[in-house]
Every structure is written in structure tokens, then in C-alpha cells.
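BUG: 3D viewer hangs when loading the predicted structure for this chain

Environment: internal workstation, default settings.
Expected: structure renders.
Actual: progress bar stalls at 90%.

Input used:
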Amino acid sequence: MKSTIGHKKTLAEQTADRLIDRIISREFEKGQQLPNEFLLAERLDVGRGTIREAIKILASRHIVEIRRGYGTFIAQNPGQIDDPLGLTFMKNKKKLAADLYEMRLMIEPQVAALAARRATEQGLQSIMDAAKAIESSISAGLTWTEEDIAFHERIAEASDNQLASSLIPIIHSAVKVFAQLYGKPLTETTIETHREILQAIREHNPEKAEQAMIRHLQRNKEFAEDLMKSDAGEEKKEYQPD
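C-alpha cells produced before the viewer hung:
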């Protein structure tokens, strides 16, 4: 195995780093098309071959997307891949759904508490809009998985914690896994517990927000566990709205 100790970066790697710096500094925005090879080479004072290698490095790290016939674009979520946890290759999806709810219970109540402390008026409005979108979809009899994910993502953004904003969308793969397994979730309970979370954040009450999130996640976790029991032939409970 080749040792990386004392590894000196190639010119292409250094060039890739320089392009990353320009993305971080917003010289290049998410979704923006990069200049062509000739212009980039001229701007960075390197050869076109070096630019091509640097772009390959960035593409392998999901920082840029190469669209044949169109050009190279900055990724919408630079550095993030679609399935960073390898959920696709976890065979037991029922256990995966339960495990992800368990993980959410460890993290999201604290994120909600942070949002209650730090949410701006703009952040509150975005959470409110997401909650309304869920209720509108439920009222219309439509699926609302994406709206539910957006609600929790808006809370993470309102927490003003960069890692929470990146981590919550990954963890919320649980919502999609659960929806794929069982279809219809707890609509009435979802509306009620979402409203409780929203109200606590609007009141800037961290303790209340934390407890509301715990109730919301625990209710759904119990529902998931109950459905798994019913699949195994055990008696199924009848859930009523909280």
C-alpha cells in the first residue's frame, strides 16, 4: 500500500484546491457553469491538461458535475453525495427505518432546542411555510414525504448550526425509507406534533421545543415498530391522535 505520509500534492491537486477556495469565497456559486478550460487555464496560470485533471478530481469528490455537451457546473450541494451512509446496500430496510428513528431521537430534539434559541423571523417563517405545505398536501390527499423532510430541514437551518444543516437531510433518509415500506404515515398526529414543535420555536422555548420533538419522533418510532410487529404476525395496536 502506498503511504500518504509526506505526500506532496500534484499541480492538478493544487489547482483543484484553488478552485475549491474560489467556490468557498463565492466567486463561483452553486449551480453555476465554470468557464471553459482555456479561460480557467489562463485565469489560474496553468496548462489546460492540468485543468482537465483538476476537474476530474473535483468531479470525483462531487464538487462539480460534468454535463456532456453543456460544460462543467458547480454541484448544488458541493462535496455531498446522494447516499453517504450507504443505505442502499443495507438489506434489512425495516431495521434501517427503526435505527434511523433511534438516531433521530438522539439528535433532532437538541436541534429543535437550538432553533428555539436562535431562530430569526425569516427562519420562523420558513418553518411555518413548511408546516403549512404539509397540511395542504394532507388535506388534498397527496403524499407529503418531501414536505415533511423540508419541515425538519428548515428547523435545522434555523438552529444556525452548519453541521446540523448538513446532517439532518442525511438522517432524513429514514422518512423516505419508512414511506417506501409502509406508505401512509400518521397524518393527524403529524399535524398536531408539528404544530407543537413550531409553537415552541416561535415562543423561543428550548425545553418545550426539545420535548415536542421527542414526542413527535417517539410517536412515529412506536408506529414503525408496531407495523414491523404486525408484519411478523403479532397483534397490531390502534393508534389515536395525541
